[in-house]
Amino acid sequence: MSNKKVLVVDDDPINRKLIVKILSKKGFEAIEAGNGVEAFTALENNDVDLILLDIVMPVMDGIEFLKEIKTKPAYINLPIVILTTDDSKKMEAKDLGADDVIIKPVSAIELLETIERLFNKP
């Protein structure tokens, strides 16, 4: 699984650092962005294998980002996992093309199991 790049998009730097630490310990390369606009810039500059996406963010939130990215052919099959404290957003995110939703606070075990499952999906 190592050498896979994961884009962590969250406006809370503490959450981002925690997730980056979990990913790094498992050999993933983590790239950080603080909102959807920064995430698109990161995608232009990196080959990313999966996105972990917060919903509530300034500038461009996760729902806006999800709607936008799913219109771009280059990213249509890129796995996206939503991270949110709002359980009511789960269905909307899935309907917009998210591969999975994890309710915060994020469990390291759940996060890693979700990522492994998506990377091993046929």
How would you describe this protein?
The chain has 122 residues and is an alpha/beta fold. The protein has one domain: Response regulator (Rossmann fold, 3-Layer(aba) Sandwich), CATH 3.40.50. Helix content is 40%, strand content 20%. Strands 2-1-3-4-5 form a 5-stranded parallel beta sheet, with helices on both faces. The protein is globular and about 30 Å long. The mean pLDDT is 93.
Question: Can you lay out the helices and strands and say which pair or pack?
Answer:
Layout: E1 5-9, H1 13-25, E2 29-33, H2 36-45, E3 50-54, H3 62-69, E4 80-84, H4 90-95, E5 100-103, H5 108-119
Parallel strand pairs: 1-2, 1-3, 3-4, 4-5
Q: Classify the fold: give the CATH topology.
A: Rossmann fold
Lateral arrangement of strands in the main beta sheet: 2-1-3-4-5
Poorly predicted ranges (pLDDT <50, ≥5 residues)?
none
The oligomeric state of the chains shown is: single chain
Structural class by secondary-structure content:
alpha/beta
Count structural domains. 1
- Mean pLDDT across all residues, rounded? 93
CATH homologous superfamily heading = Response regulator
Write down the secondary-structure element order: EHEHEHEHEH
Provide a count of the helices: 5
* CA radius of gyration: 13 Å
Q: Strand tally, please?
A: 5
Q: Could you give the distance between the termini?
A: 15 Å
CATH architecture term: 3-Layer(aba) Sandwich
